[in-house]
Design brief:
Structural class: alpha+beta
CATH class: Mainly Alpha
Mean pLDDT: 88
Helix content: 40-55%
Radius of gyration: 17 Å
Number of strands: 3
Low-confidence stretches: none
Distance between the termini: 33 Å
């Protein structure tokens, strides 16, 4: 990966990774590598999830009972843990999505605001 590609990526805000994982699992069960690839693909290669961060987040979500894991075999015939949403996790998707929309609207209001003399910053 080029330095330009690395610079084009955006660091995730605290709590954002949880929502990205939960939203990805709305499409069905998936293993960790598949979750990371789906997030990268869906974000048009802007968001890259470090595996260390991903597995810490998956463990945290499992402890909160928002996801569950069971062993299975991946598409390349390797043993992998497949994660799926729980009912509690589905509720969190709704709640966290609403929070993210409020945050992004507020950010938009500030970023797009006109300056003191009606000029954009």
């Amino acid at each position: 990966m080029s330095t330009r590609e690395q610079n084009d990526r955006i660091a995730l805000l605290q709590g954002t990774l949880d929502l990205l994982i939960l939203k990805t699992l709305m499409w069905g069960p998936c293993h960790g590598q598949g979750i990371a690839r789906a997030i990268q693909r869906q974000s048009e290669e802007v968001l890259f999830v470090d595996h260390g961060s991903l597995y810490v987040a998956l463990q945290r979500l499992e402890e909160r009972k928002w996801i569950r894991a069971k062993w299975g075999v991946s598409e390349n015939n390797r043993k992998a843990r497949f994660y799926s949403l729980t009912e509690k996790g589905r509720e969190q998707v709704t709640e966290k999505t609403a929070e993210w929309r409020r945050l992004s609207r507020a950010m938009g209001l500030i970023v797009d605001a006109a300056g003191p003399q009606g000029e954009e910053a």
